[in-house]
Write a structure and sequence with these properties.
Structural class: alpha+beta
Number of strands: 8
Number of helices: 4
Shape: globular
Radius of gyration: 14 Å
Strand content: 25-35%
CATH class: Alpha Beta
Low-confidence stretches: 1-6
Distance between the termini: 37 Å
CATH architecture: 3-Layer(aba) Sandwich
Helix content: 25-40%
Length: 129
Amino acid sequence: MAFWRYRKGSAAERELIKHFHDRGFAVIRAAGSGVSSLSPDLMAFKKGMQYAIESKAIETENLAIKKEQFENLVKWEETTGITSYIGWRRKREQWVFIPLSVFKKNKGSYSINWKNAKLIGRSLQELVF
């Protein structure tokens, strides 16, 4: 089961790399992405635009990020000054890029539901133009 999730996650990361690259961004995929939670999965750069993205391809109605991983992303954003998003995609849906500030803190995680993610999050088109 874990191997399947890794393959699905890495396929989602490759999809995002292609999306950003096709729009003129330089894209870096973090080594060990999906293994350690010390840095985001992807970083994308283009003439003054810079994004750090933790990608999630999960079919649930609610997205929960483990507390440690989420707080590491917040710390990473504060340290680097690079705008960070959680990129979430479900089957037959477009990517939604959600700012870290809108996630709800729970006991062991931070979460958001799909409806709110679509309302608050940004589309790929909004990020690249």
